[in-house]
Design goal:
About 25% of the residues lie in helices and about 30% in strands. It is built from five helices and nine strands. It has a seven-stranded mixed sheet with strand order 5-4-3-6-7-9-8, with helices on both faces. Strands 1-2 form a two-stranded antiparallel ribbon. Strand 1 and strand 2 form a beta hairpin. Bound molecules: S-adenosylmethionine. The site of S-adenosylmethionine (SAM) has 22 residues, from helix 2 and strand 4.
């Protein structure tokens, strides 16, 4: 059995070219077997991206997959973008897609935050749900250690995947606000306002 969050895969590679219009800009993304949403831009990811306004500074795309979040944000806001994933095939695609869409971003392998060495103004993610609640919460809660003071973790999660309980549970760590709800997908903004930088 092989999953999109495996580090490497024996599933045969079969790259596919997909297109996505996000905020009036057309992107081309190559996807492949064993990466998340291989048929093209995920609806949750689209909902997240279409609701991100006016960001600036240093951005981390956590769990970049084939790269739609970091590539879109770089193109739209010209911010400094780092992108990480555990899945080697996804990282290979993200590098290819960054070149294809003419953006200059930093892409690196990391298991959760193990290779992260700096703090960000925004950590933006469509997080892996199928890894289970413990790892999901490790990702969401520990993001605060990699955010600057007043930095934001912004993520998308479906109501069937525990959106309401995530909003509730994260209030212990962040100032939590709902950005938008769209067809069951919640975009949630968690501001790191408790810690001193
Ligand atoms: C829901 S997918 C989102 C992919 C992409 N950002 C998108 O929106 O299409 C979550 C991503 O998190 C990655 N991931 C899962 N576990 C991880 C871990 N422990 N460390 C880093 N990335 C991980 C998966 O490989 C996957 O690419």
């Amino acid at each position: 059995m092989s999953f999109y969050f495996d580090k490497d895969t024996k599933v045969e590679s079969k790259e596919v070219i997909t297109k996505a219009e996000i905020g009036n800009t057309l992107f081309t993304f190559i996807t492949d077997n064993n990466v998340f949403s291989k048929r093209g831009l995920d609806f949750g990811t689209r909902t997240l991206l279409e609701n991100i306004k006016d960001i600036d500074g240093d951005i981390l795309d956590f769990g970049c997959g084939y790269g739609p979040i970091g590539i879109y944000l770089k193109k739209k806001f010209n911010v400094n973008v780092d992108m990480l994933d555990i899945n080697e095939r996804a990282l290979h695609l993200a590098r290819k897609n960054a070149m294809l869409n003419n953006v200059d971003v930093m892409i690196f392998e990391s298991d959760i935050y193990e290779a992260v060495t700096k703090k960000y103004d925004y950590i933006i993610t469509n997080p892996p749900i199928r890894v289970g609640k413990k790892i999901l919460y490790d990702i969401l809660i520990n993001a605060k250690n990699y955010l600057k003071k007043n930095g934001h973790l912004i993520f998308v999660i479906n109501k069937d995947q525990g959106a309401k309980s995530a909003m509730h549970d994260l209030q212990e760590y962040y100032n939590v606000n709902l950005v938008v709800k769209n067809k069951g997908f919640f975009v949630i903004d968690c501001q790191n306002c408790w810690l001193i930088d």
